Description:
Elements lengths: L6 H34 L4 H6 L3 H24 L3 H25 L3 H6 L3 H24 L1
Helix pairs in contact: 1-3, 1-4, 3-4, 3-6, 4-6
Amino acid sequence: MPHLxxxxxxxxxxxxxxxxxxxxxxxxILVAGAALYALITPHREIQLIRDGNAAAAVSFGGIxxxxxxxxxxxxxxxxxxxxxxxxxxxxxxxxxLVFRLTDLVLHGLPQRIREGEMAAAALLxxxxxxxxxxxxxxxxAA
Length: 142
C-alpha cells in the first residue's frame, strides 16, 4: 500500500480539484454553446429529436462534437480559469458564427433535416466538424 505522503498521492490531491474545476467550467461552456445553438438554429432540433427524428439527432450530436473539439484544445492551451473562460468563449462564439453561416450557405438543409433526411444531417455534421478541426488547430497554434 502506498504511503499517504508519497509524491504521487500529493500531486493527485493537489491536481484533482483543478481537474474538476477546469473540466466543469469547460463542460458548462459546452452546454451553454449547445443551448445557444439550439436557440439560433432555423429548425428546432431538440423537439425534432423528442419526436423521433434521427436526422435531427445526428445533426445535434454533430454540434456537440463540433463544439467539444475546439473547447478541448482551448482547455489544453489554457493556464488558468480565466484563460479557459476567454478561450472557451472565443471558440464558442466563432463556432456558433460558422455554424450559422454553414446553415445559411447550405440552405435547404434545415428543412431536409426536419423531414428526416439523413444525407442532409450527415453533410451538415461533416461541415461543422471540419470547421471545428480548423478552429482547434488555430487555437493550438496561438
